[in-house]
Design goal:
Strand order of the largest sheet: 1-2-3-4
Largest sheet: 4 strands, antiparallel
Strand content: 15-25%
CATH topology of the largest domain: Nuclear Transport Factor 2, Chain: A
Number of helices: 6
Distance between the termini: 123 Å
Order of helices and strands: HHHHHHEEEE
Number of strands: 4
Radius of gyration: 38 Å
Number of domains: 2
Low-confidence stretches: none
């Protein structure tokens, strides 16, 4: 059986588009997504990065290019959005609870200051306690020292309530709780403030 010769190939003519040598098309959405993902510190760019990243991934199926750029831009955009939301949430939380933070800080300082001052009074060193109890006369400090001496040194102070007000940099606190001494436990009511950089005890009563 005689084989038929193959049909002659069409000669290339100037100006004719070669189907085997077409330039690759650019995935514009992928490029935009990558750029916006890198510039995610700007407010709107992370959102653009996510949207164009999704579009770029879809277009990459047809264009056969840009998938890596689109995916990178998408991930960067998501990271910027999540990170920004976390920062805003943290800022809002601390702004809303700043009073609680101040309360905790002043309470910790007051507990430490009270321990030192009361132990000075237990030792009879009213002169050392005087700067931190400016509202107390010498007679009141002597009386409080005599009341505290049988109880021994302070081992632990716990607050059942603690409220702090800050006005123009001046701290005023009212607090109550329990003091564990070497020789017993006593409840107390007190109030305090500030004198320079030091916390002071303006009122102190054992129950």
């Amino acid at each position: 059986m005689t084989q038929m010769p193959p049909p002659p190939s069409m000669p290339y003519q100037p100006g004719m588009q070669n189907p085997y040598n077409q330039p690759a098309r650019t995935n514009v959405a992928a490029v935009i997504s990558l750029i916006c993902g890198i510039l995610g510190c700007l407010v709107i760019t992370p959102i653009i990065a996510v949207i164009t990243g999704i579009v770029g991934i879809v277009q990459a199926k047809t264009l056969k290019t840009g998938r890596g750029m689109a995916l990178t831009g998408l991930i960067l955009g998501i990271l910027w959005i999540v990170g920004g939301a976390g920062i805003l949430g943290t800022t809002f939380y601390f702004a809303r609870n700043s009073g609680g933070i101040v309360n905790w800080a002043v309470g910790a300082g007051t507990k430490q200051q009270m321990t030192v001052v009361l132990n000075n009074l237990v030792d009879g060193n009213t002169a050392a306690a005087k700067p931190f109890m400016p509202g107390f006369s010498d007679e009141q400090l002597d009386s409080l020292s005599a009341e505290l001496k049988p109880l021994g040194h302070v081992k632990e102070i716990s607050f059942s309530s603690f409220k702090t007000n800050v006005n123009n940099g001046v701290v005023d606190s009212t607090y109550a709780g329990t003091i564990t001494f070497e020789n017993g436990t006593k409840d107390f009511d007190a109030s305090g403030g500030t004198a320079g950089n030091a916390l002071t005890i303006n009122k102190f009563e054992l129950k």
